[in-house]
């Protein structure tokens, strides 16, 4: 039995030949145009039914995939999905509609409420600027007219004196005299100090050089060497070089200073004419008014009445209780008449003074 089974299981010599033919036929079958593009699972199932094992089927399918040209899409395929372009276009249109609507609303609000206020503000600013410009132009015109009027008026006035010196130092010719006049005060004009120093050096027959002038000033006025005097020394230096009354000249190779007083400017013609007219016209004599004697008499009479009234009041005797003594009827009548006359005179005197002042005013006019 074992031998029979072995004989049955052992392949016959013609079996490999049949197997090779079967594989060749399967290869030809798979390469045919009708089967080449069929489903691989259907091919595998068909070859298995024809008696090929899985190893042979896998080998044939691998050979087919290697030798197979690029797949051509099947002639029948499912319909493509619907396009998203309409929805995209609708979304874009909706977005643009929202943008246009919002922009329109914003522009409407802007031109309805904001733009008019901006225009009013700009117009107000423009009007204010125009008003300020007009005011500045008017101010410039008025300033120019005032300058022209001042220039015309100043030609008739006397010109101010340059380098005018304080009158209390004008008689000083040395620094000692200046110190004596100034006393403890240090507020001395720099022009006076320099003039007196130059004149003092000239009286001593010394050269009025810059070093000699400042050395003499420091000797006579020691407070200039202090810290506070340093600023004053700088002021002296500036005055010496910038004031036209001090001029520098060279003598024997040394620069010396000289003081040259400036002559006052000539008076303008109008001032000369006014002075000559004033000197030609005599002052009017002061004449006494015709009512002056009457006024003097009334003043004397008022003073007499006042003195008599105070004398009579002082002559009244008081008793011990402080009550005035009883006067005689004649004295009481005189006292009453004096008081009435005094009041009448004072009342008339005030009115008379007013009338007299008016008359004097008319007489002088």
Automatic annotation (TrEMBL):
Name the domain of life. Eukaryota
Span list, region Disordered: 1-22
Q: Tell me the Gene3D superfamilies matching this sequence.
A: Winged helix-like DNA-binding domain superfamily/Winged helix DNA-binding domain
Q: Which keywords accompany this UniProt record?
A: Membrane, Transmembrane, Transmembrane helix
**Keyword DNA-binding in annotation:** no
Please give the InterPro entries that the UniProt record associates with this protein: Pex14_N, WH-like_DNA-bd_sf
> Has keyword Transmembrane helix?
yes
In this chain the Peroxisome membrane anchor protein Pex14p N-terminal domain maps to: 18-63
Q: Which residue spans traverse the membrane?
A: 88-111
The protein's name is Peroxisome membrane anchor protein Pex14p N-terminal domain-containing protein
> Which source organism does the UniProt entry give?
Hermanssonia centrifuga
């Amino acid at each position: 039995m074992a031998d029979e089974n072995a004989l049955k299981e052992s392949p016959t010599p013609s079996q490999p030949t049949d197997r090779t033919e079967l594989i060749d036929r399967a290869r030809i079958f798979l390469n045919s145009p009708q089967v080449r593009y069929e489903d691989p699972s259907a091919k595998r199932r068909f070859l298995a039914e024809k008696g090929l094992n899985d190893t042979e089927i896998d080998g044939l399918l691998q050979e087919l995939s290697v030798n197979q040209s690029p797949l051509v899409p099947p002639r029948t395929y499912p319909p493509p999905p619907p396009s998203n372009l309409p929805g995209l276009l609708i979304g874009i249109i909706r977005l643009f509609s929202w943008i246009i609507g919002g922009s329109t609303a914003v522009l409407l609000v802007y031109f309805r409420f904001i733009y008019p206020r901006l225009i009013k503000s700009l117009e107000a600013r423009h009007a204010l600027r125009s008003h300020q410009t007009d005011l500045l132009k008017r101010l410039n015109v008025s300033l120019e007219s005032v300058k022209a009027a001042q220039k015309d008026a100043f030609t008739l006035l006397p010109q101010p004196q340059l380098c005018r010196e304080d009158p209390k130092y004008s008689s000083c010719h040395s620094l000692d005299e200046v110190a004596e006049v100034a006393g403890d005060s240090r507020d001395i004009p720099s022009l006076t100090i320099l003039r007196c120093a130059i004149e003092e050096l000239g009286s001593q027959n010394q050269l009025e050089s810059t070093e000699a002038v400042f050395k003499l000033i420091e000797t006579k006025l020691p407070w200039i060497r202090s810290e506070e005097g340093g600023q004053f020394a700088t002021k002296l230096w500036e005055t010496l070089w910038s004031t036209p009354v001090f001029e520098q000249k060279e003598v024997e190779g040394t620069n010396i200073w000289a003081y040259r007083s400036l002559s006052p400017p000539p008076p303008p013609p109008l001032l000369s004419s006014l002075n000559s007219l004033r000197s030609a016209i005599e002052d009017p004599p002061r004449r006494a008014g015709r009512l002056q004697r009457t006024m003097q008499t009334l003043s004397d009479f008022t003073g007499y009445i006042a003195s008599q009234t105070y004398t009579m009041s002082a002559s009244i005797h008081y008793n011990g209780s402080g009550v005035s003594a009883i006067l005689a009827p004649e004295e009481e009548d005189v006292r009453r008449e004096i008081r009435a006359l005094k009041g009448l005179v004072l009342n008339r005197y005030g009115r008379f003074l007013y009338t007299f002042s008016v008359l004097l005013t008319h007489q002088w006019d």
